[in-house]
Design goal:
Elements lengths: L5 E7 L2 E6 L2 E8 L2 E6 L3 E8 L4 E6 L28 H4 L6 E3 L5 H7 L2 H38 L2 H6 L1 H26 L11 H17 L5 E9 L2 H4 L5 E13 L15 E5 L5 E4 L4 E4 L4 E4 L5 E10 L9 E7 L17 E14 L3 E7 L2
Antiparallel strand pairs: 1-2, 2-3, 3-4, 4-5, 5-6, 7-8, 8-9, 8-17, 9-10, 10-11, 11-12, 12-13, 14-16, 15-16, 16-17
Helix pairs in contact: 3-5
Length: 372
Protein backbone atom coordinates (compact mmCIF):
# COMPACT_ATOMS: atom_id res chain seq x y z
CA UNK A 1 0.00 0.00 0.00
CA UNK A 2 1.17 3.55 -0.59
CA UNK A 3 2.04 5.92 2.22
CA UNK A 4 1.18 9.62 1.99
CA UNK A 5 2.11 12.75 3.95
CA UNK A 6 0.35 16.15 4.04
CA UNK A 7 0.50 19.06 6.45
CA UNK A 8 -1.39 22.38 6.19
CA UNK A 9 0.10 25.42 7.96
CA UNK A 10 -1.79 28.70 8.32
CA UNK A 11 0.40 31.72 7.49
CA UNK A 12 -2.13 34.54 7.32
CA UNK A 13 -5.93 34.63 7.29
CA UNK A 14 -6.91 32.99 4.01
CA UNK A 15 -3.28 31.99 3.19
CA UNK A 16 -2.03 28.42 3.94
CA UNK A 17 1.27 26.66 3.23
CA UNK A 18 0.77 23.01 2.15
CA UNK A 19 3.56 20.47 2.73
CA UNK A 20 3.25 17.03 1.11
CA UNK A 21 5.33 14.30 -0.47
CA UNK A 22 4.77 15.96 -3.87
CA UNK A 23 6.33 19.23 -2.75
CA UNK A 24 5.26 22.62 -1.42
CA UNK A 25 2.25 24.70 -2.50
CA UNK A 26 0.31 27.73 -1.26
CA UNK A 27 -3.46 28.05 -0.95
CA UNK A 28 -5.18 31.46 -1.10
CA UNK A 29 -8.84 32.11 -0.36
CA UNK A 30 -11.70 31.06 1.87
CA UNK A 31 -13.66 27.83 2.18
CA UNK A 32 -15.55 27.29 -1.04
CA UNK A 33 -13.17 29.40 -3.21
CA UNK A 34 -9.42 28.83 -3.18
CA UNK A 35 -6.49 29.16 -5.55
CA UNK A 36 -3.63 26.69 -5.20
CA UNK A 37 -0.17 27.73 -6.45
CA UNK A 38 2.26 24.87 -7.04
CA UNK A 39 5.67 24.96 -8.77
CA UNK A 40 4.83 21.70 -10.57
CA UNK A 41 1.18 22.09 -11.52
CA UNK A 42 0.98 25.88 -11.69
CA UNK A 43 -2.19 27.69 -10.61
CA UNK A 44 -5.46 25.78 -10.01
CA UNK A 45 -8.89 27.15 -8.99
CA UNK A 46 -11.19 25.18 -6.67
CA UNK A 47 -14.83 26.21 -6.19
CA UNK A 48 -17.36 24.37 -4.00
CA UNK A 49 -20.30 24.55 -1.62
CA UNK A 50 -19.11 23.72 1.92
CA UNK A 51 -20.87 20.66 3.45
CA UNK A 52 -22.32 19.38 0.13
CA UNK A 53 -19.31 17.66 -1.41
CA UNK A 54 -19.89 19.56 -4.68
CA UNK A 55 -16.63 20.96 -6.06
CA UNK A 56 -15.26 22.29 -9.33
CA UNK A 57 -11.55 22.38 -10.15
CA UNK A 58 -9.81 23.89 -13.19
CA UNK A 59 -6.31 24.94 -14.25
CA UNK A 60 -5.53 28.65 -14.58
CA UNK A 61 -2.41 28.00 -16.67
CA UNK A 62 -2.44 29.53 -20.21
CA UNK A 63 -2.92 27.06 -23.05
CA UNK A 64 0.15 26.36 -25.14
CA UNK A 65 -0.33 27.39 -28.74
CA UNK A 66 0.14 24.99 -31.57
CA UNK A 67 3.45 25.01 -33.35
CA UNK A 68 3.40 27.45 -36.24
CA UNK A 69 4.10 24.50 -38.49
CA UNK A 70 0.66 23.13 -37.58
CA UNK A 71 -1.15 26.28 -38.69
CA UNK A 72 -3.18 25.89 -41.85
CA UNK A 73 -2.02 28.70 -44.18
CA UNK A 74 -5.47 28.74 -45.80
CA UNK A 75 -6.87 30.08 -42.53
CA UNK A 76 -4.61 33.18 -42.56
CA UNK A 77 -6.65 36.21 -43.73
CA UNK A 78 -5.34 37.82 -46.89
CA UNK A 79 -4.93 41.62 -46.96
CA UNK A 80 -5.79 43.51 -50.14
CA UNK A 81 -3.11 46.16 -50.69
CA UNK A 82 -4.83 47.67 -53.70
CA UNK A 83 -2.57 48.18 -56.70
CA UNK A 84 0.60 48.58 -54.64
CA UNK A 85 2.99 45.69 -53.98
CA UNK A 86 3.99 45.36 -50.34
CA UNK A 87 7.30 47.27 -50.11
CA UNK A 88 10.34 45.62 -48.47
CA UNK A 89 10.23 48.00 -45.50
CA UNK A 90 6.88 46.47 -44.47
CA UNK A 91 8.33 42.96 -44.43
CA UNK A 92 11.26 44.25 -42.36
CA UNK A 93 10.16 47.45 -40.56
CA UNK A 94 12.84 50.10 -40.29
CA UNK A 95 13.03 53.80 -39.51
CA UNK A 96 12.42 56.25 -42.35
CA UNK A 97 15.60 57.53 -43.96
CA UNK A 98 16.16 61.25 -43.39
CA UNK A 99 19.16 63.14 -44.71
CA UNK A 100 20.26 66.72 -44.21
CA UNK A 101 21.56 68.55 -47.26
CA UNK A 102 24.16 71.18 -46.45
CA UNK A 103 27.82 71.96 -46.95
CA UNK A 104 30.49 71.95 -44.29
CA UNK A 105 31.18 75.23 -42.50
CA UNK A 106 33.25 77.83 -44.31
CA UNK A 107 35.94 77.39 -41.66
CA UNK A 108 36.18 73.66 -42.46
CA UNK A 109 36.14 74.33 -46.20
CA UNK A 110 39.03 76.77 -45.80
CA UNK A 111 41.16 73.92 -44.45
CA UNK A 112 40.79 71.95 -47.68
CA UNK A 113 40.67 74.98 -50.00
CA UNK A 114 43.44 76.50 -52.12
CA UNK A 115 45.63 77.83 -49.30
CA UNK A 116 47.91 79.92 -51.54
CA UNK A 117 45.08 81.75 -53.29
CA UNK A 118 43.30 82.24 -49.96
CA UNK A 119 46.48 83.83 -48.59
CA UNK A 120 46.86 86.15 -51.60
CA UNK A 121 43.22 87.26 -51.44
CA UNK A 122 43.50 87.87 -47.70
CA UNK A 123 46.65 89.97 -48.05
CA UNK A 124 45.09 91.94 -50.90
CA UNK A 125 42.03 92.63 -48.78
CA UNK A 126 44.12 93.73 -45.80
CA UNK A 127 45.99 96.18 -48.07
CA UNK A 128 42.67 97.43 -49.42
CA UNK A 129 41.33 98.01 -45.91
CA UNK A 130 44.48 99.86 -44.88
CA UNK A 131 44.19 102.07 -47.95
CA UNK A 132 40.50 102.66 -47.20
CA UNK A 133 41.30 103.84 -43.67
CA UNK A 134 43.92 106.25 -45.02
CA UNK A 135 41.45 107.60 -47.59
CA UNK A 136 38.86 108.19 -44.86
CA UNK A 137 41.46 110.11 -42.85
CA UNK A 138 42.24 112.22 -45.95
CA UNK A 139 38.56 113.00 -46.37
CA UNK A 140 38.27 114.15 -42.76
CA UNK A 141 41.37 116.36 -43.16
CA UNK A 142 39.96 117.91 -46.36
CA UNK A 143 36.60 118.67 -44.72
CA UNK A 144 38.31 120.26 -41.68
CA UNK A 145 40.56 122.42 -43.92
CA UNK A 146 37.55 123.57 -45.96
CA UNK A 147 35.61 124.41 -42.81
CA UNK A 148 38.54 126.47 -41.51
CA UNK A 149 38.90 128.31 -44.83
CA UNK A 150 35.19 129.21 -44.85
CA UNK A 151 35.40 130.43 -41.25
CA UNK A 152 38.37 132.62 -42.13
CA UNK A 153 36.68 134.15 -45.15
CA UNK A 154 35.37 137.29 -43.39
CA UNK A 155 35.97 141.08 -43.36
CA UNK A 156 38.67 140.95 -40.67
CA UNK A 157 40.81 138.33 -42.45
CA UNK A 158 40.34 139.97 -45.84
CA UNK A 159 41.48 143.33 -44.40
CA UNK A 160 44.25 142.37 -41.97
CA UNK A 161 45.15 138.66 -42.65
CA UNK A 162 44.64 138.37 -46.37
CA UNK A 163 47.74 136.16 -46.93
CA UNK A 164 46.68 133.80 -44.13
CA UNK A 165 43.23 133.54 -45.69
CA UNK A 166 44.74 132.68 -49.07
CA UNK A 167 47.05 130.08 -47.48
CA UNK A 168 44.08 128.41 -45.76
CA UNK A 169 42.08 128.28 -49.00
CA UNK A 170 45.07 126.84 -50.85
CA UNK A 171 45.62 124.22 -48.12
CA UNK A 172 41.95 123.18 -48.28
CA UNK A 173 42.16 122.86 -52.07
CA UNK A 174 45.30 120.70 -51.85
CA UNK A 175 43.76 118.35 -49.27
CA UNK A 176 40.60 118.01 -51.32
CA UNK A 177 42.61 117.13 -54.45
CA UNK A 178 44.73 114.64 -52.49
CA UNK A 179 41.62 112.96 -51.18
CA UNK A 180 39.97 112.75 -54.61
CA UNK A 181 43.08 111.18 -56.16
CA UNK A 182 43.37 108.63 -53.34
CA UNK A 183 39.68 107.79 -53.58
CA UNK A 184 39.97 107.20 -57.31
CA UNK A 185 42.93 104.92 -56.67
CA UNK A 186 40.95 103.03 -54.02
CA UNK A 187 37.95 102.63 -56.32
CA UNK A 188 40.13 101.11 -59.03
CA UNK A 189 42.20 99.00 -56.63
CA UNK A 190 41.78 95.28 -56.96
CA UNK A 191 43.51 91.97 -57.25
CA UNK A 192 44.47 91.56 -60.89
CA UNK A 193 43.27 88.05 -61.71
CA UNK A 194 44.86 86.62 -64.84
CA UNK A 195 42.33 84.16 -66.23
CA UNK A 196 44.65 81.88 -68.17
CA UNK A 197 41.78 79.80 -69.50
CA UNK A 198 40.99 78.48 -72.97
CA UNK A 199 38.62 80.71 -74.98
CA UNK A 200 35.96 77.99 -75.30
CA UNK A 201 35.88 77.59 -71.50
CA UNK A 202 35.54 81.35 -71.07
CA UNK A 203 32.61 81.28 -73.52
CA UNK A 204 30.96 78.58 -71.40
CA UNK A 205 31.42 80.80 -68.36
CA UNK A 206 29.85 83.75 -70.20
CA UNK A 207 26.86 81.52 -71.01
CA UNK A 208 26.69 80.49 -67.36
CA UNK A 209 26.58 84.11 -66.21
CA UNK A 210 23.74 84.87 -68.63
CA UNK A 211 21.79 81.75 -67.60
CA UNK A 212 22.30 82.55 -63.93
CA UNK A 213 21.13 86.11 -64.44
CA UNK A 214 17.98 84.75 -66.08
CA UNK A 215 17.44 82.25 -63.24
CA UNK A 216 17.78 85.03 -60.67
CA UNK A 217 14.54 86.51 -62.06
CA UNK A 218 12.55 83.52 -60.77
CA UNK A 219 9.79 84.61 -58.41
CA UNK A 220 10.86 81.98 -55.86
CA UNK A 221 14.16 80.13 -55.41
CA UNK A 222 14.58 77.40 -52.82
CA UNK A 223 17.52 75.80 -51.06
CA UNK A 224 16.72 72.17 -50.14
CA UNK A 225 17.92 71.50 -46.57
CA UNK A 226 16.55 68.00 -45.90
CA UNK A 227 15.15 65.07 -47.80
CA UNK A 228 13.32 62.01 -46.53
CA UNK A 229 12.53 58.86 -48.44
CA UNK A 230 8.79 58.76 -49.10
CA UNK A 231 6.89 55.61 -48.12
CA UNK A 232 4.78 55.45 -51.25
CA UNK A 233 2.67 52.55 -50.00
CA UNK A 234 1.80 54.10 -46.64
CA UNK A 235 1.43 57.69 -47.89
CA UNK A 236 -0.37 56.66 -51.09
CA UNK A 237 1.77 59.06 -53.12
CA UNK A 238 3.78 59.07 -56.33
CA UNK A 239 6.46 61.23 -54.69
CA UNK A 240 9.80 59.47 -54.25
CA UNK A 241 11.08 61.90 -51.61
CA UNK A 242 9.74 64.47 -49.20
CA UNK A 243 11.87 67.59 -48.77
CA UNK A 244 12.27 70.63 -46.56
CA UNK A 245 13.22 73.83 -48.37
CA UNK A 246 14.00 77.46 -47.57
CA UNK A 247 13.58 80.49 -49.81
CA UNK A 248 16.89 82.03 -50.91
CA UNK A 249 18.09 84.34 -53.68
CA UNK A 250 20.34 84.25 -56.73
CA UNK A 251 22.07 87.45 -57.76
CA UNK A 252 25.22 88.82 -59.36
CA UNK A 253 27.75 90.25 -56.94
CA UNK A 254 31.28 90.19 -55.64
CA UNK A 255 32.84 89.79 -52.20
CA UNK A 256 34.10 93.01 -50.63
CA UNK A 257 37.47 91.40 -49.87
CA UNK A 258 38.06 90.72 -53.59
CA UNK A 259 37.41 94.05 -55.33
CA UNK A 260 37.62 94.00 -59.10
CA UNK A 261 40.54 95.67 -60.80
CA UNK A 262 39.84 98.32 -63.43
CA UNK A 263 40.58 95.82 -66.21
CA UNK A 264 38.55 92.97 -64.71
CA UNK A 265 36.03 91.60 -67.25
CA UNK A 266 33.67 90.04 -64.71
CA UNK A 267 33.27 92.69 -62.06
CA UNK A 268 30.23 90.83 -60.75
CA UNK A 269 29.78 87.05 -60.80
CA UNK A 270 26.99 84.53 -60.00
CA UNK A 271 26.17 84.63 -56.28
CA UNK A 272 24.10 82.08 -54.31
CA UNK A 273 22.90 83.09 -50.85
CA UNK A 274 22.28 79.69 -49.27
CA UNK A 275 19.95 78.82 -46.40
CA UNK A 276 22.82 78.20 -43.98
CA UNK A 277 24.03 81.80 -44.17
CA UNK A 278 26.98 81.19 -46.49
CA UNK A 279 27.40 83.04 -49.78
CA UNK A 280 28.76 81.17 -52.79
CA UNK A 281 30.51 83.10 -55.58
CA UNK A 282 31.21 81.36 -58.89
CA UNK A 283 34.31 82.72 -60.65
CA UNK A 284 35.75 81.39 -63.94
CA UNK A 285 38.50 79.39 -62.21
CA UNK A 286 37.29 78.85 -58.63
CA UNK A 287 34.38 78.97 -56.21
CA UNK A 288 34.41 81.13 -53.08
CA UNK A 289 32.37 80.07 -50.05
CA UNK A 290 32.06 83.06 -47.76
CA UNK A 291 30.75 83.74 -44.25
CA UNK A 292 30.82 86.88 -42.13
CA UNK A 293 34.20 85.93 -40.65
CA UNK A 294 35.98 83.73 -43.19
CA UNK A 295 36.12 82.49 -46.77
CA UNK A 296 37.31 79.41 -48.65
CA UNK A 297 38.53 79.08 -52.24
CA UNK A 298 37.57 75.77 -53.86
CA UNK A 299 38.89 74.84 -57.29
CA UNK A 300 36.24 73.80 -59.86
CA UNK A 301 37.75 70.38 -60.53
CA UNK A 302 36.83 69.48 -56.96
CA UNK A 303 33.14 70.32 -57.46
CA UNK A 304 30.55 68.50 -59.55
CA UNK A 305 27.85 70.88 -60.85
CA UNK A 306 24.71 69.39 -62.40
CA UNK A 307 21.75 71.32 -63.77
CA UNK A 308 18.58 69.48 -64.68
CA UNK A 309 14.83 69.73 -64.99
CA UNK A 310 12.91 68.31 -62.06
CA UNK A 311 9.21 67.43 -61.85
CA UNK A 312 7.91 68.31 -58.40
CA UNK A 313 4.55 67.55 -56.74
CA UNK A 314 3.77 71.05 -55.46
CA UNK A 315 1.51 71.10 -52.40
CA UNK A 316 2.19 74.78 -51.66
CA UNK A 317 1.28 77.79 -53.78
CA UNK A 318 2.50 77.38 -57.34
CA UNK A 319 4.77 80.30 -58.37
CA UNK A 320 3.17 82.39 -61.09
CA UNK A 321 6.11 81.85 -63.46
CA UNK A 322 6.30 78.06 -62.97
CA UNK A 323 5.32 75.55 -65.67
CA UNK A 324 2.60 73.11 -64.58
CA UNK A 325 3.18 69.78 -66.34
CA UNK A 326 0.28 67.72 -64.98
CA UNK A 327 -1.87 66.71 -62.03
CA UNK A 328 -1.80 63.95 -59.44
CA UNK A 329 -3.86 63.16 -56.33
CA UNK A 330 -3.18 63.71 -52.64
CA UNK A 331 -3.89 59.99 -52.24
CA UNK A 332 -3.02 58.18 -55.45
CA UNK A 333 -2.76 54.62 -56.71
CA UNK A 334 0.51 53.41 -58.16
CA UNK A 335 -0.68 54.19 -61.70
CA UNK A 336 -1.48 57.79 -60.67
CA UNK A 337 -5.24 57.36 -60.56
CA UNK A 338 -7.36 58.60 -57.66
CA UNK A 339 -7.51 56.37 -54.59
CA UNK A 340 -11.26 56.50 -54.04
CA UNK A 341 -11.11 55.01 -50.56
CA UNK A 342 -10.23 58.45 -49.11
CA UNK A 343 -12.90 61.10 -48.66
CA UNK A 344 -11.98 64.62 -49.67
CA UNK A 345 -9.17 63.43 -51.92
CA UNK A 346 -8.02 66.31 -54.11
CA UNK A 347 -5.71 66.96 -57.05
CA UNK A 348 -2.21 68.38 -56.75
CA UNK A 349 -0.24 69.97 -59.63
CA UNK A 350 3.11 68.69 -60.79
CA UNK A 351 5.50 71.51 -61.65
CA UNK A 352 8.70 71.60 -63.67
CA UNK A 353 11.55 73.31 -61.80
CA UNK A 354 15.14 73.91 -62.76
CA UNK A 355 17.53 72.21 -60.36
CA UNK A 356 21.16 73.15 -59.69
CA UNK A 357 23.19 70.69 -57.63
CA UNK A 358 26.75 71.32 -56.37
CA UNK A 359 28.60 68.45 -54.69
CA UNK A 360 32.11 67.57 -53.59
CA UNK A 361 32.46 64.40 -51.56
CA UNK A 362 31.02 64.89 -48.09
CA UNK A 363 32.04 68.55 -47.67
CA UNK A 364 29.87 70.33 -50.26
CA UNK A 365 26.23 69.61 -51.04
CA UNK A 366 23.89 72.30 -52.33
CA UNK A 367 20.51 71.65 -53.99
CA UNK A 368 18.55 74.63 -55.33
CA UNK A 369 15.28 74.88 -57.28
CA UNK A 370 14.01 77.75 -59.39
CA UNK A 371 11.36 78.29 -62.04
CA UNK A 372 13.68 79.14 -64.92
Amino acid sequence: MGLGFRQRIKILPGVHLNLSANGVSISLGVPGATVNLSPKRGARLALGIPGTGITYRTSLNPQINQSQHDVNPDLIPQVDHGRYPVPPEFAHPQSDLERKINSASVEDLAVVGNAELQRIIKESYENHEQMAREVRDMEVAAVDAERLARWSDNFFFRLFLKKKLLDRKEEACKKRNTYEEAKLLLDTYGLNLDWNIAPDILQIYDDLVMAFQEASKSSVIWDVTMEKQANQFRERTLAVKNIERTKISFTLGRPAYLPASIDEKWKIVPQINDAGGAVIYIFPAFFIFSSETNFAVIEPQNIVAISSRYNFIEEEKVPYDAVVTGQTWKKANKDGSQDKRFNGNYQIPTVAYGKLRLTSGEIIEEDTYCQT
